[in-house]
User: Fold this.
Amino acid sequence: MSGGFLKTALRKLATKIMARSGKSLSDRAMKSMVPMFVEATTPDDHKCGNCFMRCRENSAESCIIVKGGVSFTLGTCTFWAKGPASHWSKIHEDRMNYAVSGYVEVPEGVKVNCGACRFFDNGHCTLWNGKVQEGQCCMAYSSPQEYVPEQGSPGAK
Ligand code: SF4
Ligand code: SF4
Assistant:
């Protein structure tokens, strides 16, 4: 997730946490300190297709908090949360654009999880300086292959 200002803020926070702890964070510390740290899920892929904020508008893949459409198979954002698409009738009036939500897409076959994140190094997160498992994820996920589609053109690349 490139995500502009939000990602910059997260990286500053990570630097502060690392400086304060001075040592590698345990599994427990990662879960309690890292924003929106999520456990490995089944499937271990944190994309719009298994986020509870996904919905359909005129049959198109969409989201109740991000405007312009999303891709269930390629997209994700910093607000991902696992669950069934049960909130389709609660579309927010003022939805975020791609830049504010940190919406990005990855090429087909690339996962959204710690194992596919640029900060993953053999079970260690180099951003938060802590222990992680491949299937876990957090708000600061960033893939070397991610891109932001043109607003309103999800899945077009
Ligand atoms: S854009 Fe974000 S909040 Fe919306 S469905 Fe995708 S991951 Fe969930
Ligand atoms: S490896 Fe990436 S997704 Fe996983 S905790 Fe670190 S920054 Fe977050």
Summary: The pocket of iron/sulfur cluster (ligand 1) is lined by residues 48, 51, 53-54, 63, 65-66, 70, 75-77, 79-80, 101, 103 (CB under 6 Å). Residues 4-131 form one domain. The chain has one domain: 4-131.
